[in-house]
Design goal:
By secondary structure, this protein is an all-alpha fold. It has one domain: Orthogonal Bundle (ABC transporter involved in vitamin B12 uptake, BtuC). The protein is built from twelve helices and two strands. Strands 1-2 form a two-stranded antiparallel ribbon. A hairpin with a 2-residue loop joins strand 1 and strand 2. It is globular and about 55 Å long. It starts with a helix and ends with a helix. This is Mn2+/Zn2+ ABC transporter permease. It is found in: Cell membrane. It holds the Pfam family ABC-3. InterPro entries: ABC_BtuC-like, ABC_TroCD.
Length: about 290
């Protein structure tokens, strides 16, 4: 029987692993801000789904959030194709859709328990209480969802490993080889949306950004191989979640906030100690060069 604390640690680790794998491709594609955009605009999808169904339970919330994430991707790409700079198109779509979601929460939703603070920060401490029975075993809904999403992410990463590797490092080569670059792009961004939505309930919008970007950025400092980067990014995400939980207990503070803080701590250690890009290696190399001369 897994304890209350155990479910929180498992759920946080699943968020870190899933976001870490997807985040590695975001870093390589220089699309870090898309994670920020999608993690905020899913709020609009959740609100619209509630306004239609008048219920906070059910798969419709997930569908609404995923729809908002995909809509964000299409709008950003459409504005970019019309000549708007990519960063500018992300900024316009992100702020507009998120602002619309905030306005709907404060007006149309009213007194229903769907508040902005929870959407931004999440509350992973509540995750173990909302359970379902799966194969005779009780498991939190959020944990089961993250397990499913992780399986989907692993399937697509393995199925399109070579294609996404080429499109991430050399899009021009991918086009010359006849790969469906745009189809692969939208498939990947759909995966980002699904991952973001699955993590949204556990850690909130702001913390999803930290989990998607920082572990991957840390892994990027340690290796030049994509396969190793994916493994390291997932490991750093899980490590940050586990350490963050115990830091939160120690400080008596927000669990999701502490998890995000630990992603920054892992990045700081990587930035200092990385053998190829770290500060220490930059200090040591000139001395080694002098000795060699």
């Amino acid at each position: 029987m897994i304890s209350y604390e155990g479910w929180i640690l498992i759920t946080g680790a699943l968020v870190g692993i899933t976001c870490g794998i997807v985040g590695a491709y975001l870093i390589l594609r220089r699309m870090a801000m898309m994670a920020d955009a999608i993690s905020h605009t899913v709020l609009l999808g959740i609100v619209i789904a509630f306004l239609i169904t008048q219920s906070l339970e059910g798969v419709h919330m997930l569908i609404g959030a995923i729809g908002a994430g995909i809509l964000t991707t299409f709008l950003v790409q459409w504005f970019h194709s019309k000549g708007v700079e990519h960063d500018a198109s992300i900024g316009v779509v992100f702020t507009s859709l998120f602002a619309l979601g905030v306005i709907l929460i404060s007006t149309a939703v009213g007194n229903v328990h769907l508040d902005i603070k929870h959407a931004l920060m999440g509350e992973i401490a509540f995750i173990p209480w909302n359970r379902l029975t799966l194969f005779g075993f009780e498991i939190p809904v959020a944990t089961a969802t993250l397990l499913l999403v992780l399986a989907i992410v692993l399937f697509f990463v393995l199925a399109f490993y070579k294609e996404w590797k080429i499109t991430s490092f050399d899009p021009a080569l991918a086009v010359s080889l006849g790969l469906p670059v745009m189809l692969l792009h939208y498939l990947f961004m759909t995966l980002v949306s699904i991952t973001t939505v699955a993590s949204f309930d556990a850690v909130g919008a702001i913390m999803v950004v930290a989990m998607l970007i920082t572990p991957a950025a840390s892994a990027y400092l340690w290796t030049n191989r994509l396969s190793i980067m994916l493994v390291l990014s997932a490991a750093f995400g899980a490590l940050s979640a586990i350490l963050g939980y115990y830091v939160a207990l120690w400080l008596d503070s927000s669990i999701s906030g502490s998890m995000a803080l630990m992603t920054g701590a892992v990045f700081l250690v990587s930035f200092i100690c990385s053998p190829s890009h770290g500060l220490v290696s930059r200090w040591v190399r000139p001395e080694e060069t002098t000795k060699a001369q």
